[in-house]
Amino acid sequence: MKIALLSGSIVGSKTQTTMKIIQNKIVAQYPEDELTLIDLKELSVEFSDGRNYLDYSGDTLHVTTTLMEADMILIGSPTFQASIPATLKNVFDLLPQSAFEQKIIGIAMTAGSPKHFLVAEMQLKPIINYMKGNLVANYVFIEDKDFYQAEITNDDVLFRIDKLIEDAIVLTRAYQQVWQAQEDSYDF
């Protein structure tokens, strides 16, 4: 199975910290799966200009092809001005409308206060649904108070991260079996 982790911001450290924790947990628990961490902070991604995602080059092509080839994507996003960052929206704009079809998508949101928990519900989930993604029902919401010196210190948050990973893996494997059975039934 191909898993992509997308850290959707070029500033701050909390989303990056969260995605590295997720990366370490997946590597330890599911070493047989192919895992790629896309950290936008470490890449130079072009602005979307309407081209086909394969017509880009460099980091932009790496990001788009990695996401298109993934079976499962876990997206990490901070909350900026009660919204998702423009860098993450740009990644979505680089991809075709049905980019997430037959993919399981999970979300880990970071925010400064509990007032921003609806950003995932009102902004990120509708985009993923529009792009045909199959969402893991529960996402992880992490507040500033859950971090201390680039570490997540809230055990409940770490438990929810474990559950997000487990649910995403189980859903991906189950969906792959169902989709393969459907494909096999066509008999041509």
Automatic annotation (TrEMBL):
Keywords: Flavoprotein, FMN, Oxidoreductase. GO terms for molecular function: oxidoreductase activity. InterPro entries: Flavoprotein-like_sf, FMN_Rdtase-like_dom, NAD(P)H-dep_FMN_reductase. Pfam families: FMN_red. It is an enzyme of class 1 (oxidoreductase). Its EC number is 1.-.-.-. Residues 1-142 form the NADPH-dependent FMN reductase-like domain. This is NADPH-dependent FMN reductase. It comes from Enterococcus eurekensis.
